[in-house]
UniProtKB/TrEMBL annotation:
InterPro entries on file: C-N_Hydrolase (IPR003010), C-N_Hydrolase_sf (IPR036526), UPF0012_CS (IPR001110)
Keyword Zinc-finger recorded: no
PROSITE patterns: CN_HYDROLASE, UPF0012
Residues covered by the CN hydrolase domain: 1-239
GO molecular function, one term: hydrolase activity
Protein keywords: Hydrolase
Classification lineage: Bacteria, Bacillati, Actinomycetota, Actinomycetes, Kitasatosporales
Pfam families membership: CN_hydrolase
Protein name, entry field: Carbon-nitrogen family hydrolase
Entry similarity comment: Belongs to the carbon-nitrogen hydrolase superfamily. NIT1/NIT2 family.
Length: 263
């Protein structure tokens, strides 16, 4: 199963329209892959809070249209990263879109853990309430977005729902890059899954992005890692490896559910 991670640059000197066209052509260049993944909020930038309201789109807006077409042109499963979605009530969500190779929307995932403490995404956006998995022919994706990476219980929920490839679309900042690598590897090891962690490059809203997108195998080994700049990382995954790892080292079977509360 060939996966391509597109670590697109999100510098503010490029318009959203131009980046949308460029993202579509980067996806088309990956024809032949099975799965292509873009990062979090790449049209606008994850920290560009002042642009969220002006750049918000309906679910089936311009990014949806461009990405559905790119997926079908390339004939790939496309995790198109996330957009600022405005719903019918006017609420904003950080919503990831996954398209089939014929360009149909397979699933959308609204980010559950909002970043920013008492500002930014945490006050501007509503929280998603649903865990989302996407069955592909060779694997089941479990979806997460950026700050979600810090909450292991979300990933356990995805694994319990059958996920064996965890996809994290992010706009992770350079200043916390050490956490990015550590947490991506931890999620792979503790869940015995592949982790595809896709970030942005460049700087927007004064926040340098970490880049360094990662592919981690179910043993926690880093199979591939991008540098800081725009880059596409292509890796062949062995879809049998999560089950094989769980057979060889059956730690997931030893989980104790309903742990006692401290006395
Ligand atoms: N931007 C995010 O969603 C998460 C983040 O920056 C972090 O450190 O966590």
């Amino acid at each position: 199963m060939r996966a391509s991670l597109i670590q697109i640059a999100v510098d503010p000197d490029e318009s959203v329209d131009s980046r949308r066209r460029r993202a579509a052509s980067l996806v088309r260049a990956q024809a032949g892959a099975d799965l292509v993944v873009l990062p979090e909020l790449w049209p606008v930038g994850a920290f560009a809070y002042e642009s969220f309201a002006t750049e918000a789109e309906p679910l089936e807006g311009p990014t949806y249209e461009a990405m559905a077409k790119a997926a079908s042109d390339a004939g790939v499963w496309l995790h198109a990263g996330s957009i600022v979605e405005r719903d019918a009530e006017g609420l904003l969500y950080n919503t990831s879109l996954v398209f089939s190779p014929t360009g149909e929307l397979a699933r959308a995932y609204r980010k559950i853990h909002r970043f920013g403490f008492d500002k930014g995404e945490a006050v501007l956006m509503a929280a998603g309430t649903e865990l989302v998995t996407v069955p592909l022919p060779a694997a089941t994706l479990g979806l997460a977005t950026c700050y979600d990476l810090r909450f292991p219980e979300l990933f356990r929920g995805l694994v319990d729902a059958g996920a064996d490839v965890l996809v994290i679309a992010a706009g992770w900042p350079e200043r916390r890059r050490a956490h990015w690598t550590l947490l991506a590897r931890a999620r792979a090891v503790e869940n015995q899954c592949y982790v595809l962690a896709v970030g942005c490059s460049g700087t927007h809203a004064g926040v340098p992005q970490a880049g360094h997108s990662l592919v981690v195998d179910p043993w926690g080994e880093v199979l591939a890692e991008a540098g800081p700049d725009e880059e596409t990382l292509t890796v062949d995954l062995d879809p049998t490896k999560p089950a094989e790892t769980r057979d060889q080292f059956p730690a997931l079977k030893d989980r104790v559910l309903g742990l006692p509360t401290p006395g």
